[in-house]
Specification:
Order of helices and strands: EHEHEHEHEHEHHEH
Number of helices: 8
Radius of gyration: 17 Å
Structural class: alpha/beta
Helix content: 40-55%
CATH superfamily: Spore Coat Polysaccharide Biosynthesis Protein SpsA, Chain A
Number of strands: 7
Length: 247
């Protein structure tokens, strides 16, 4: 099955110029072509990305205006699929994900190329308690909206996607374009029958302290997303329940 896999990496970037170079270096050291998505960054960060894009194994996708994490990921995943890659590793630009676990994610994707490989964070003391509580509230709603516990963590942005079904989803459904993207895409892929394989991985919060999570707006968008998914779950509940029995 491994011979069928052609995996690249997609890194959404918004003003993490100080950290993205190290993340890209780790990705490239694992033999992955790197798609950097400049999500309307400042001139300083854009210059860093321009320099990184001089390498032959780096492609820069530039968005003129900030689209949010979801918008950046959709642009990057579409670009990767159009370039012929079958799978894409998503990893954040701020260095919070343990790049040393990339081989584990790639091995899991090679073993299960039809599945989404999704990180389950192992936190250290750097995680803010408020953010941790908020994440678990989202997880509960995801379990309800998927009628399953298969999605163990819906917010971790360290994962591997099979590109064909993901891009098809983008063409057929309207997804959230900001911090609501990560949980919504997993629920909708689960609805479509994709399996979710969980990989424990260490997560630390960014050293530069730069977070793009906007407490008011992003919580509102996530709440709206859960409401939309709840309606979708009710419509799909007979199929979802039948699938649970069949599996």
């Amino acid at each position: 099955m491994a011979s069928e896999i052609r995996t690249c990496a997609v890194i959404p970037v918004y003003n993490h110029g100080a950290a993205v170079g190290a993340v890209a270096a780790h990705v490239r050291a694992n033999g992955l072509h790197c798609f950097l998505v400049d999500d309307g960054s400042s001139a300083d960060c854009a210059a860093v990305l321009d320099a990184l894009a001089q390498a032959p194994d780096v492609t820069l996708v530039r968005l003129a205006l900030n689209q949010g994490k979801g918008g950046a990921m959709m642009a990057g995943l579409r670009a990767a699929a159009a370039a012929g890659w079958s799978h894409a590793l998503q990893i954040d630009a701020d260095g919070q994900h343990d790049a040393g676990d990339i081989p584990k994610f790639l091995a899991a994707a090679a073993d299960r190329p039809d599945a989404v490989i999704c990180g389950v964070p192992i936190y250290d003391e750097s995680v803010p308690m408020g953010r941790l509580i908020g994440r678990y509230a989202t997880h509960v709603w995801v379990w309800i909206n998927s009628l399953s516990l298969e999605i163990r963590d819906s917010m971790c942005g360290f994962r591997v996607y099979p590109l064909a079904p993901v891009v098809r989803l983008f063409d057929e459904a309207r997804l959230g374009r900001r911090m609501d993207f990560d949980p919504e895409v997993l629920v909708r892929l689960h609805w479509r029958g994709l399996r979710i394989v969980s990989i424990p991985t260490r997560v630390t919060y960014p050293q530069d302290g730069l977070s793009h999570f906007r407490l008011g707006l992003d919580n509102w968008l996530i709440s709206k997303m859960h409401a939309r998914l709840a309606v979708g779950m009710l419509l799909r509940s007979p199929l979802l329940l039948w699938r649970k029995v069949a599996r």
